Amino acid sequence: MKRWLLLAAGLAAALFAGALMSACGGDDDDDGGGGLTPVTFMLNWTPNTYHSGVYIALERGWYREAGLDVKIIEPAAGGTAQVLAAGKADFGVMAQEEIIPARAEGVPVVALAALIQHNDSSLYFLKSEGITRPRDLEGKTYGGFGGVLERQLISELVKCDGGDPSKVKFVEVGNVDYLAGMESNRFDFVWVFEFWDVLRAREVEKKDVGSLKFIDYTHCIPDWYTPLIVTSEQLIKEKPDVVRKFMEATVRGYEVAMQDPQAAADAIMKGAPESDRRLLEVSAEYLSTRYVDPGRPWGLQDREVWVTFTEYLRRAGLIDKEIDVDAAFTNDFLPKR
């Protein structure tokens, strides 16, 4: 969720080249065999439950039925945006806080669908810290990536709840075992996804942990999309039929994930057998009712969310260039339901 930090550096030529090397070789225009069009889908993280719709569609052969030979590939070192823009992957997963700065720097990525309608981020801590609300973060130490967005959001949460943000300490810890870090008193709280890190600790490892969900404080901070399925402007322009077929099969996958969480966990286990089955099962159950609000089609993005969060990043000083919000996302490739 905080990979937007890597984007600024990733726009440099050296990292751009490294990202391409990390993605995969070969010519994406080559026929995948049997008349199928080869398609690459780049993960943004370890395989997890918010990728389940893609794994379900792959397992059930829906991409092949659509004439697509879909291959899931590992994340590139410099992030997804540059790889998509260079045509070295066709689809990927990014957060809105990555897409907006990328577009501000001229990287032509486009969001096609929101994987989860609302932000599932949380601030996560041991219950022994006595944290029950944002102002309780006074005197605590946050362990993160040293990003401006992290400091901005946490400070606003604390201030909104009547606390003093200057009393929160920030330390840069990077990508570490957060639970171990909190248990060894290196830091007191971190920013994670509720559906993964919090459930792992609480339901799988049986730790006494708590969390403050961002979605419970939208009177203080904005709701935004994290993550989304993305592609490039070039693919939309040159191969709109491929984009449409991919999204139609993918939507079918997420509709199954919402109706049958066990099928979602099973599909990921089949595609990524190194995964923790228990975590996948509890996480798939949790997400099944959170992918989208009742009565709403999966994947649909609201322009208001894009406008509001773009303005938030601008006010926070995280972007200093105007972007065309309407060019940053589209719902046009979601099937009409």
From TrEMBL:
Domain of life from the UniProt record: Bacteria
Domain SsuA/THI5-like stretches: 48-264
Residues in the signal sequence: 1-22
Keyword Signal: yes
Claim: Acetylation is one of the keywords in the record: no
Name the record gives this protein: ABC transporter substrate-binding protein
UniProt entry keywords in alphabetical sequence: Signal
Protein's organism: Tepidiforma flava
InterPro entries reported for this sequence: NMT1/THI5, SsuA/THI5
